[in-house]
Write a structure and sequence with these properties.
Radius of gyration: 18 Å
Order of helices and strands: HHHHHHHHHHHH
Structural class: mainly alpha
Strand content: under 5%
Low-confidence stretches: none
């Protein structure tokens, strides 16, 4: 049992370190599930619910901004534009995720899909970094409804494990004229309804299979993901401002190729 809790802590750390980087936290969790031989709750519910710990970190780090938006919904147009942008971007993946939930969990949650997605996504990052257009949007509050919806369509790509939710939304935003910092921050904010919705739906679908031991493992992973994600969020925006996203592209290609080599060679 101690080994299971240790594995849950390791997976929580992996989640917290990768959720907001364009490297696919779900993909890394699936890979580490296999490497550790982790026996968590059925239906990959641990892999999804533990992400909520990282999302809570966003709420803590950006509490003042989110509180200002919540309070401003009464009479502040900027707060309304912020909220509408997040909700519109959330909508496409919510609909597709609901419709394709069973297929994604039963067919796409495997190591080969993750590795191929990591490599393809890494190549996409390197291409976008070279041809990214001049930014036109520097604040979420200035996003138009069509822009937010288009970013949401990019997020749908992340329904495939290994693509990376943050990577898809950030690259999509960059291609649509959003600057790096705003693209990254919008990805953080968009994660809140996206992962909260995924967590609630996964718990609902797997509630009958949950046990006290499974809940305890999730709690451990949740706590570790929360703490580690706080560190990553604070460092990530500064890092991309200095180095861009190319290092993550090369990392994705390297780790995807390495794991594929280990499996098939």
């Amino acid at each position: 049992m101690f080994r299971d809790y240790l594995d849950a802590a390791i997976l929580g750390l992996v989640e917290g370190l990768t959720e907001f980087l364009p490297v696919s936290s779900t993909g890394h969790i699936i890979l580490f599930d296999d490497l550790l031989g982790f026996n968590g709750p059925p239906g990959h519910v641990f892999d999804v619910v533990v992400q909520l710990g990282a999302i809570l970190a966003v709420c803590v780090v950006y509490f003042s901004r989110l509180w200002k938006v919540a309070v401003g919904l009464k009479d502040d147009p900027r707060a309304w534009r912020f909220t509408i942008a997040v909700l519109l971007a959330f909508l496409p993946s919510a609909v597709l995720g609901f419709l394709l939930h069973g297929f994604i969990k039963s067919v796409l949650f495997n190591t080969t899909v993750v590795c191929v997605s990591l490599i393809v996504g890494g190549i996409a990052i390197l291409i976008v970094e070279r041809f990214v257009p001049t930014p036109r949007y520097h604040e979420v509050e200035r996003f138009t409804a069509p822009l937010a919806l288009k970013i949401g369509l990019f997020q749908c790509l992340a329904l495939v494990p290994g693509v990376s939710r943050s990577g898809a939304t950030i690259l999509g935003a960059l291609l649509l004229g959003v600057d790096r910092r705003t693209a990254a921050e919008f990805s953080f904010f968009l994660a809140i309804p996206t992962m909260f919705g995924a967590t609630v739906y996964d718990l609902y679908k797997n509630w009958s299979h949950m046990s006290s031991d499974g809940a305890a493992l999730i709690a451990v992973g949740f706590a570790v993901a929360f703490v580690s994600a706080i560190v990553v969020i604070k460092a990530f925006v500064n890092f991309i401002g200095r180095y861009g996203f190319a290092p993550f592209g090369w990392y994705r290609i390297a780790i995807g190729a390495l794991i594929l080599g280990m499996i098939y060679l």
